[in-house]
Amino acid sequence: MAAKGSASKEIITQKILETFEGAFKYDKEIRIPIIEDGVEVQIKVTLTCAKTNVESGMDNAIPGAETATTITPKAIDNHGVAEVTEEEKQNVLKAMQALGL
Q: In which order are the strands placed within the sheet that holds 29-36?
């Protein structure tokens, strides 16, 4: 049986690798090389599946504590290709611009 969230982590890993030129996997990390002040630095990204879900904006929430919710998580379709919305494309472009990529 696969570890909890492993399919989701793979989807996210692929998106990160596609988004950042030169990004690569190193052991269990994703490395993103960036030039900062004329010197290359590597940003390390690791993905883990949360043991307990919390909601966005609940920064002070205690994991596992009961909160009122009306959000229904979307199921991940591991058999199809995720479609990127125009809004998501614009958000990525803005982020890349802000990072000087």
A: 24-26, 29-36, 39-45
